[in-house]
Design brief:
By secondary structure, the chain is of the alpha+beta class. The chain is built from 9 helices and 4 strands, in the order H-E-E-E-H-E-H-H-H-H-H-H-H. A hairpin with a 4-residue loop joins strand 1 (24-27) and strand 2.
């Protein structure tokens, strides 16, 4: 659907994100192109040109706005942080100190990481770590004859009692009962 120039101008004035993928505009006096939802000061109408997309504006010699980043269609830095945290957990969920150190290197507070992770994946990083540990423990219990105390140590527990409590809470059975159920 092609928009009229008046409709595009109204979208710019209203900072309407609904038009972000329909067109972009250039502010001739500063040489930048923006999304219709850009929160920068509304330019004078006479200084605006309309383009169908960011590539067309860039090809005409204009640079992207540093505020609304029209050159990055799906700019989602928090989603990227959530993905980085998930990758770190997947790699180091059994090594608490190393995982903590790696997550600190992201320079984001633990509260913010927890909120972003929950928004992206529907559970907190601690809940996800618990799921990974239970999944790993179940695999070891079903596929190996490794003693339960060694499995507890392998997935990061210093106490067999803590492992039993944790496993029973997540799996509904003690590790010993789970192993017997699997072998039947």
């Amino acid at each position: 659907m092609k928009c009229s120039e008046d409709e595009m101008w109204q979208a710019i004035v209203a900072c309407d994100a609904g038009y972000d993928e329909k067109f972009c505009y250039v502010v001739k006096t500063v040489g930048v192109y923006c999304r219709p939802s850009c929160k920068s000061r509304t330019p004078l109408r006479r200084n605006v040109l309309f383009f169908s997309d960011a590539e067309e504006a860039a090809a005409a010699g204009f640079r992207p706005c540093k505020r609304c980043r029209p050159d990055i269609l799906n700019y989602a830095p928090m989603q990227k942080i959530a993905e980085q945290v998930k990758q770190l957990i997947d790699k180091h969920y059994c090594e608490k100190e190393l995982l903590t150190a790696e997550i600190k290197r992201l320079s984001v507070s633990s509260n913010r990481i927890s909120a972003v992770f929950r928004q992206e994946y529907g559970l907190s990083p601690a809940e996800y770590i618990g799921c990974k540990k239970v999944e790993h423990a179940k695999k070891l219990l079903s596929d190996t004859d490794t003693p339960i105390i060694d499995i507890a140590g392998d997935i990061g527990f210093n106490s067999l009692a803590a492992f039993y409590t944790f496993f029973k809470r997540h799996a509904g059975l003690t590790p010993k009962m789970y192993r017997k159920e699997i072998q039947l």
